UniProtKB/TrEMBL annotation:
Lineage of producing organism: Bacteria, Pseudomonadati, Pseudomonadota, Betaproteobacteria, Nitrosomonadales
This protein's UniProt keywords: Membrane, Transmembrane, Transmembrane helix
Organism: Nitrosomonas europaea (strain ATCC 19718 / CIP 103999 / KCTC 2705 / NBRC 14298)
Transmembrane feature ranges: 6-26, 46-79
Protein name stated in the entry: Transmembrane protein
Length: 83
C-alpha cells in the first residue's frame, strides 16, 4: 500500500476533478465548433475525421480514468476517516 497521508490523497483527488472536467469541456467545445447550421458535424477529409475521433477518444478515456481515480481517492479517504 501507499505510505502517503490520507489527507494528501484527498487533496490530490479534489485537485484532479477540475482537470477532468476541463478535458470534458474542451472536447465539447471542440465538437461544437465543427457543427454546421443543421447541427451535423462536418469534417474536411477522412483523415481529419479519424484524427478528430482518435484525439477525442483519448481525451474522453483519459478524463474518465481521472474521474474514476479521483472519486475512488475521495471514497478511500471517507472510509479511512469514518470507518
Amino acid at each position: 500500500m501507499e505510505d502517503t497521508a490520507p489527507i494528501t490523497t484527498l487533496l490530490y483527488s479534489i485537485l484532479a476533478l477540475p482537470i477532468a472536467f476541463m478535458i470534458l469541456y474542451w472536447t465539447k467545445v471542440r465538437k461544437d465548433r465543427r457543427r454546421n447550421e443543421t447541427g451535423e458535424i462536418e469534417y474536411k477529409s477522412l483523415g481529419h475525421a479519424l484524427t478528430f475521433f482518435i484525439i477525442e477518444g483519448l481525451a474522453l478515456v483519459g478524463s474518465l480514468s481521472i474521474l474514476i481515480t479521483a472519486v475512488s481517492g475521495i471514497v478511500r479517504y471517507l472510509i479511512y476517516v469514518y470507518a
